[in-house]
Amino acid sequence: MTVARPTRTRKDQAKDPARDPAPPKSSKKTKRAKRAKASASAGPPPGRGAAGHRTDLLESMLRIRRFEERCVELYSAAKIRGFVHLYIGEEAVAVGINEALTPEDAVVSTYREHGHALARGITAEAVMAEMYGRTTGSSGGRGGSMHLFDASRRFYGGNAIVAGGLPLAAGLALADHMRGQPNVTCCFFGDGAFAEGEFHETANLAALWKLPLLLVCENNLYAMGTALERHEAQTDLAMRAASYGMVAWAVDGMDVEAVEHAARRAVEGIRTGTGPHFLELRTYRFRAHSMYDPDRYRQKAEVERWKERDPISLLTDRMRENGELGDRDLARIEQRVTDEIDHAVGAAEQAPEEPVEHLLHHVTSSSTEEVW
Fold first, then answer.
1. Which of 102, 177, 215, 312 could lock 278 by a disulfide, CB 3.0 to 4.6 Å apart?
2. Residues 6+ apart with CB under 8 A from 83
3. What whole-number distance in Å separates Cα of residue 21 and Cα of residue 30?
4. What is the rounded (10 degree) CA torsion for 44, 45, 47, 50?
5. Which strand (E) or helix (H) includes residue 227?
6. Which residues are 279's β-sheet partners?
């Protein structure tokens, strides 16, 4: 497990030029500090040993992988339609980050958000029903692949606009900050969003106001079909983020335990009131940008090299070496995941479509609707 060292700001260097700073701790025993202490550990949650925790991580990643693979089959059979952006290869990011968050924290996602939603705890049944456009979906069948949403889990949706979720995340973080709530808002976005004005406006205000915001950049090296080095003069995104005065560092986004360790450390720093933190998760998508994409902008050999660091295989191999996982154990996990996804597909196909009479529902809000 490897975690890159944090990028120092100028203030940090002035304090101690010999080493990178650990996230500072608050001297006040506030609710925020107490929450930070509870979530700071990089180890497994209470009641689960290291082996059990790794098993949970593996099952979560397999759930995402098998769900996405089923989406490929269903899309090819024309059972689900529209734009579909698969998360295959990036599972370690969603799973590792969500391990550091509490149910009270907020999550804002992108259009590639199936994995984020499943890792957040939205059921495969609710996500699959949304893919089918059925009323039992997480957004009532109105959002589809790019607009999953569940306010009960503080999952404030995917966003079809590149970088569109960043200002929304800043607003959620500001609201919690003003209310004195010890919550963190986590915003996922890709390397392509780094070039958008929304990122720089959000980073500046978050640092200026010390908002409790975790900025998670999923750097999969391509903004749709444009390679990172073709659209960014400086490709060290963590270093650039640090220029706003926030703690920032790069992480091996293919190693779920490295991601979790970094996320817990970042969240601890945020909860102590030190302001936003930025994580550059260096990862890779094994499939094309979307199901419509012919994927002609990268070499097959490059994809195969990255598949050698498949996050699921990395964790599986580690567990086997530790004597924590056997063939029967893996088969049981696979069967549980398969049964769960089979049930989700069956339920989605039986669920009703929204009647045409509801066409104008939810177009405007009423004073009786709960919107927070």
1. 215
2. 111, 145, 146, 160, 290, 291, 292
3. 22
4. -10
5. strand 226-227
6. 216, 249
Angle at alpha carbon of residue 31, lines to 27 and 35, rounded to 5°: 95
Instruction: Kindly tell me the sign of the dihedral angle through the C-alpha atoms of 98, 3, 245, 274.
Output: positive
> Do 62 and 332 form a contact (C-beta atoms < 8 A)?
no
**pLDDT digits over 221-271, tens only?**
998 888 898 989 899 999 999 999 999 999 999 999 999 999 999 999 999
Distance CA 60, CA 353 (A): 29
Cα torsion 221, 226, 230, 233: sign: negative
| CA dist., res. 27 & res. 233, Å (int) | 40
**pLDDT the model gives residue 134:** 96
User: What are the tokens at 9?
Assistant: 């700001």
C-beta separation of 239 from 248 below 8 A: yes
Closest CA to 283 of 363, 359, 213, 228: 228
Interacting residues of 87 by C-beta distance below 8 A, sequence separation 6+? 64, 68, 94, 112, 113, 114, 115, 116, 285
Q: How do strand 106-108 and strand 247-252 relate by DSSP bridges?
A: unpaired
Give dist(CA 272, CA 29) in Å, integer. 9
Instruction: Report the residue count for the chain.
Output: 372
**Distance from C-alpha of 260 to C-alpha of 310, rounded to nearest angstrom:** 17
Q: Please tell me the distance from the alpha carbon of residue 67 to that of residue 47, in angstroms, as a whole number.
A: 28
Beta strand 226-227 pairing with 222-223: antiparallel
* Gap between the Cα atoms of 335 and 322, Å rounded: 23
3-state secondary structure of 162: coil
Task: Please state the pTM of the whole predicted model.
Answer: 0.86
Q: Cα(24)–Cα(268) distance, rounded to whole angstroms?
A: 9
Position 307 scores a pLDDT of: 95
16-60 pLDDT per residue, tens: 333 333 333 333 344 554 555 544 444 566 667 999 999 999 999
